[in-house]
Amino acid sequence: MLAGLAFKRKWQNKRKAEGKPYDKPNIVTGANVQVCWEKFARYFEVELKEVRLRDGYYVMDPEKAVEMVDENTICVAAILGSTLNGEFEDVKLLNDLMVEKNKETGWDTPIHVDAASGGFIAPFIQPELEWDFRLPLVKSINVSGHKYGLVYAGIGWVVWRNKVDLPEELIFHINYLGADQPTFTLNFSKGSSQVIAQYYQLIRLGYEGYKNVMENCRDNMLVLKQGLEKTGKFNIVSKDNGVPLVAFSLKDNSSHNEFEVSEMLRRFGWIVPAYTMPPDAQHITVLRVVIREDFSRTLAERLVFDIEKVLHELETLPSRIRITAKIILADDEKAAAANKEKRDLEKTREITTVWRKFVMQRKMNGVC
Ligand SMILES: Cc1ncc(COP(=O)(O)O)c(C=O)c1O
């Protein structure tokens, strides 16, 4: 939000200086943006222009994004690691196309990179990937320390390319705490524990440490992905070279859908969200598993095993879709209820045993 505000103010100042209207700012993003960008647009009265998705392509198309840019565009926001499927958007291509358009039009539309997850992944496992200040139009980058920065929740930051990219008028200077304190925040006081935790992780792990952790996450992601592929039941909609997560959908969801898989997995202690994609891919539902440092290979294998059990169980159940369509007979319903009760009891016992064993062995499951 602070990065967006800086772009808006910079654009307004430029338009004022040129004697042009400055009351209709817009920002261009993919329809896959995280909700913080919608929030920014609404709170700061900036029109959100979203590039729609399409079947099989779930990130912002750089060509379409550049086509949507006009003289009122404060910036194009690209995501390094789409929240929905972890895919890295092509920031380099976006930069190159935008450089061309700026040359033709005389504008200087900049780029922001929302590297909430990818900012702590790409530098360690894809250092050659150009997505950052190596690209001339990238003026600011945000990253969440509490994702792959490996700190507990509540820390993130934004970095500007140059001092001029953050208008001075947005910075307040206070001196009543004994020294000059420049502040550019939406609130004021904030605890420092997360900053200390981040500092600790940086010096404790260093480049090598973060690299090991990220490689490990990627390897465990591949174990999970391959396990899911082996079932033959899923399409994988995430990419191997993005955020280490697996987003997948059922090849055939005509009888049972992803929401049922999600719901049944809860009984095994797994919370795997199912959700629909944004426009124009909202007919696709995916399940998503994000692999973090403490998600070991053992857990990945365990999850595949439990998903297989859920699939097997679903096969034995009548289609919920057809139940809603009222084509199931009352007798079948009664029998299903009795069976379900029995199965639930057995399942609860099984799950308790498995998790107790897992918790007892937990110390042996360390990732790094
Ligand atoms: C791409 C992206 N941007 C921004 C955010 C929000 O970041 P934070 O949780 O640090 O506020 C997220 C979080 O899920 C995200 O995935």
Outline the fold blueprint.
Layout: H1 2-18, E1 26-30, H2 35-43, E2 47-51, H3 62-68, E3 73-79, H4 91-105, E4 111-114, H5 122-125, E5 138-144, E6 156-160, E7 172-174, E8 181-183, H6 193-231, E9 234-236, E10 245-250, H7 258-265, E11 274-276, E12 285-290, H8 297-316, H9 320-324, H10 330-361
Bound molecules: pyridoxal-5'-phosphate.
Pyridoxal-5'-phosphate binds at residues 34, 36, 79, 83, 114, 116-117, 144, 156.
GO molecular function, one term: glutamate decarboxylase activity
Family: Belongs to the group II decarboxylase family.
Protein name: Glutamate decarboxylase
Task: List descriptors.
42% helix, 12 strands, glutamate decarboxylase activity, disordered C terminus, Glutamate_decarboxylase, calmodulin binding, single chain, 15% strand, 2 domains, EC 4.1.1.15, binds pyridoxal-5'-phosphate, Aspartate Aminotransferase, domain 1, Aspartate Aminotransferase, domain 2
Q: Helical proportion?
A: 40-55%
Largest sheet: 6 strands, mixed
Q: What oligomerization state is this entry in?
A: single chain
CATH class placement of the largest domain: Alpha Beta
Strand content range: 15-25%
Bound molecules: pyridoxal-5'-phosphate
Strand line-up of the largest beta sheet: 2-1-3-4-5-6
Number of E strands: 12
> In CATH, what is the homologous superfamily of the largest domain?
Type I PLP-dependent aspartate aminotransferase-like (Major domain)
Approximate shape:
globular
Low-confidence stretches: 362-368
**Structural class category:** alpha/beta
Spatial gap, N to C terminus:
34 Å
Enzyme class: lyase
Modified residues (N6-(pyridoxal phosphate)lysine): 147
Cofactor: pyridoxal 5'-phosphate
Pfam families: Pyridoxal_deC
